[in-house]
Specification:
Distance between the termini: 25 Å
CATH architecture of the largest domain: Up-down Bundle
Shape: globular
Number of helices: 18
Order of helices and strands: HHHHHHHHHHHHHHHHHH
Structural class: mainly alpha
CATH topology of the largest domain: Growth Hormone, Chain: A
Radius of gyration: 22 Å
Strand content: under 5%
Number of strands: 0
CATH class of the largest domain: Mainly Alpha
Length: 495
């Protein structure tokens, strides 16, 4: 058998295809950034929106919750739709729907219309996000190219919340709170034009039909869990409604798992979850999301309330963490994981994040950002960069083409559920810590400020504990070595 030496002209199509893949990554990254931004971009705009539309303090949580509730509850069905109807079609439909719902929310003249728009954003985000991640895995074959692509994608997933805080502050301060929603139209147009020109349709999953019983069970179950956690923020953990929704959600999710084991066309094939490394990666993603939401929520309040930062100044304060995360993500995907494996990279990242959170507990009412906030933020960013991209890559590596959307949806679900758990748990703990601090003390302005500071540091201690637990669990569950999950390789859409 002879080996032909490739001619110079034969390299052109391959070079063109490689170039095209990176343009596809740019399109996917824009769509992913749009979806991730909306988890936090509206937060800084809430006071302005509340003054404009006149809704109460009790209702304002729904501006955030309506998005995450719809998103987290419908991600699995969104991923399966991509497998059934083609990843390009579902990607484009998701982008159009997200743009229209953003325009609706931005133009809202009442609280009800704003909530409807935010909920619809969550619905179409649940369609768009799994399709985006599946397209990345289908576009880049296993190897260094996919590792680099996942490094970029993971950096966006990890920093999108902080970028949202910065962009939300700029738009609110210099334009209007409505532009935190209208800005999605710009992202959507870029995603639509690029997607229409570059993406290929992908292959449908044969004659598979949508798993309607599974869809109802998992959607209702995740709704119960997310709503129960959100309810704990306003009614406390002693509320019967809180535990009732959590219990109902847990029962429905368990029923969903039982149904998937015998369904003819399962919404989430259990073979996706049986790999040990993939299970560890899902856990890592959930823990990382819980900790990140704690950082964004409480450090934002500390900077604005305790240190009197403006919305723009608060967003800028997070930029060093973003830079550290991006640098660390590239080091992890191109050096640490290939040399040492995910069993070393991910737990090490968790430990670094725990150290950074512990360091943040030293903040005070008059401490300097440069000495007490910046150094721990850099450490947290370095840690998360070694958690998010490797975990994303391992969670979706080796999944068959027909299961790519379901695996991607499960990954995004872990992010949303993790964020909900982190927000509800840490906020409840922080509120209790502030109340306990005030007991037996005269509630002067100084004492109230100290109580609030105590609530922040208590949340950071618990966040450090969450990351520490994540380090132990991932170190025990991940297999040794550098190998990806031993499944059939995913084919490239471009091939």
């Amino acid at each position: 058998m002879s080996i032909d030496t490739p001619h110079p002209e034969s390299a052109a199509p391959e070079d063109g295809r490689d170039s095209r893949r990176w343009w596809i990554l740019a399109v996917i990254a824009v769509a992913q950034l749009m979806v991730v931004l909306d988890a936090t971009i509206v937060n800084i705009a809430l006071p302005s929106a509340q003054r404009d539309l006149g809704f109460s303090d009790a209702d304002r949580q729904w501006v955030v919750t309506a998005y995450s509730l719809a998103f987290g509850s419908l991600l699995l069905i969104g991923g399966r739709l991509a497998d059934l109807f083609g990843h390009k079609v579902v990607f484009l439909v998701g982008a159009v729907g997200f743009a229209l719902s953003s325009a609706l929310a931005g133009a809202a003249d009442s609280f009800t219309l704003l909530i409807c728009g935010r909920a619809l954003q969550g619905v179409f985000g649940a369609v768009l996000a799994p399709a985006a991640l599946s397209l990345l895995n289908l576009t880049f074959p296993e190897g260094k190219g996919r590792a680099r692509a996942l490094g970029i994608f993971g950096a966006i997933a990890g920093t999108g919340g902080a970028i949202g805080l910065l962009l939300g502050g700029v738009l609110t301060e210099h334009l209007s709170w409505r532009w935190t929603l209208y800005v999605n139209l710009v992202f959507a147009v870029l995603a639509l034009v690029g997607g229409g020109l570059l993406l290929e349709g992908g292959r449908r999953a044969g004659r598979a039909r949508l798993d309607l019983p599974g869809t109802l069970l998992v959607s209702a179950g995740l709704f119960g869990v997310v709503y129960g956690l959100g309810n704990a923020e306003s009614h406390g953990w002693s509320s019967a409604m809180t535990w009732g929704f959590l219990a109902l959600g847990a029962v429905l999710v368990a029923a969903f798992a039982a149904w998937q084991s015998r369904a003819a066309n399962p919404l989430l094939p259990l073979r996706i979850l049986r790999d040990r490394d993939r299970a560890a990666s899902f856990s890592a993603i959930l823990v990382a999301a819980s900790g990140m939401f704690g950082i964004f929520l409480f450090l934002t309040y500390y900077l604005q309330v305790s240190l009197s930062y403006t919305p723009v100044g608060t967003g800028i304060a997070f930029l060093p963490m973003i830079v550290a995360l991006v640098v660390s993500a590239q080091i992890a995907t191109n050096l640490t994981v290939p040399k040492l494996g995910v069993r070393v990279a991910v737990p090490t990242g968790m430990v670094l994040a725990a150290v950074g959170m512990t360091w943040l507990t030293n903040i005070g009412l008059d401490t300097s950002y440069n000495t007490h906030v910046l150094p721990p933020l850099l450490v947290v960013g370095l840690g998360l960069g070694h958690v998010v991209p490797p975990a994303l890559g391992t969670a979706t590596a080796g999944v068959g083409r027909d299961d790519a959307g379901a695996a991607s949806a499960a990954t995004n679900t872990m992010q949303q559920i993790g964020g909900s758990i982190g927000t509800a748990l840490l906020n409840t703990i922080a509120t209790s810590a502030a109340s306990s601090y005030l007991e037996g003390r005269t509630p002067s302005r100084l004492v109230q400020a100290q109580a609030q500071l105590h609530s922040f540091t208590t949340a950071f201690w618990w966040g450090a504990g969450i990351f520490g637990l994540g380090a132990v669990c991932t170190a025990l569950v991940y297999r040794s070595g550098t190998a990806a999950p031993a499944k059939a390789p995913v084919e490239s859409v471009s091939s």
